[in-house]
Amino acid sequence: MLSARDVHKHFATPAGTLEVLRGVDLEVAPGETVAVLGESGSGKSTLLALLAGLDVPTRGSVWIDGRDTAALSERELAALRARRIGIVFQSFHLMSGLSAEENVRLPLELRGDADAAARARAALEQVGLSARAAHLPARLSGGECQRVALARALVVEPGILLADEPSGSLDERTGEAVDDLLFDLVAKRGTALVLVTHSERLASRCSRRVRLAGGRLSA
Description:
Order of helices and strands: EEEHEEHEHHHEHEHEE
Radius of gyration: 17 Å
CATH architecture: 3-Layer(aba) Sandwich
Strand order of the largest sheet: 6-7-8-3-9-10
Structural class: alpha/beta
Distance between the termini: 19 Å
Shape: globular
Largest sheet: 6 strands, mixed
CATH topology: Rossmann fold
Number of strands: 10
Number of helices: 7
Strand content: 25-35%
């Protein structure tokens, strides 16, 4: 379903070339939950961006559903991402001028789904926010914002969910509630999950754990 093959990622800096990823290989099967552990600055978010098709490797390839993302046009890649991949960020990335329902509805409207409004309301109900559908993000708590972001990521019914420290900016109690909801929804839908985290506790909830250090993955 999702595959990284000998992925390298380098960045040019004033001090020279920074090698963040050095030959990463990762295979994610349908319905599998994989935790990517690593210290801050180890390249976890960089890897997630590559898996999502938001960035391109310096060398190597990323494959989604048997398609090499490097061989796709920007339009084809955007369409594949909209159809197959959901993304949850640590900082929510909600549109401040849109209500909770409008934020969830947005990815459906962008791909022209006629039932976007009904599906967005159903997704908000799943995350327990039906009563907050008309509220702007500024009127929501951090935990509520993350639940809206989770509803937005899953409303397109993706085969793959990529989550970057989804509870990292929340207090412990709220974060655990969001984590519970995340794993519950993924299990019910049979969605594959790649979870980037520095938390051993959270990683232990995944079926497989890998660690990123020195630009390489190890089991």
